[in-house]
Amino acid sequence: MQQMNKEGRSILYIIDLPAEQAQAFDRQAVIHKTAYALEEKILRSFDILCVFNQNMRKALTDRYDLCADKFVEFEILDYGVDFSPKGPKRFIKGDKWRIAYAGNLDRRHVGDLNELPQAESLRYIFLGKDRNWILDADRPDIECRGLLTHAELAHYLFRNAHFGLIAVGDMGRRYYDFTCTSKFGAYMSAGLPALVSSKYTYVASLVMKYRVGLVFENLSQLPSLLDRLSESVYMKLSAHCVLLGEKMRCGHFFKRAVNTAISKLN
User: Fold this and answer.
1) How far apart are CA 170 and CA 68, in angstroms?
2) Please, which of 74, 78, 159, 239 could form a disulfide with 257 given CB 3.0 to 4.6 Å?
3) What does pTM read for this prediction?
4) Domains in the chain and their CATH numbers?
């Protein structure tokens, strides 16, 4: 790889750390030293590195002894989709809470369906690829749909669900300390509050900061957590999601990061 033309200034926008990702989803993965050498060369070729958060920044500075001033944190990955809720979602007390899980439905990612609590007030909707094993599950409280486009997914979630779930399997959970799963963007774009396990520490921190959902310790808490939730509180959560979703659709977090990076370069 050639060194970038240093007559200009350069910004690298980093949304994944391949080495950490590979090791998080495959504990047996071995990363060759050549891969690290190439990654270091790429990173040093740019003047500014835009990263999700301080965890991602620390991972890179610790590994390659990079200067902290080289980094800008963009916090959330924007989610461009041609859908905009007209207002917050409503929930009528007495209806069943419909909880969606959107994304890769491979068994390794989803985990054990038996961990999802069964309650008269809860129904679950899974949306994504690799769903056959879920269709075979003997759970009348679970329904399953295939893969949808971003726009189709936003429409479907807004019409058919009350919450979006970010939790279930532990596969790759530690990797989300460095990033924010695209599920978060999908839920916000539909005005859907998120239900997030406290084990997903970074995503949970975003949910609490922007007041766009509820954080729980374990899945067994969901029935009592939602049974105590009032209609007015739910609508406030959804209203916050609509506002954050609008920012994400407009590229707010990307633009803010680039403006900060340009200020650093100047």
Assistant:
1) 31
2) 74
3) 0.91
4) 11-78+251-265 (no CATH), 97-249 (3.40.50.2000)
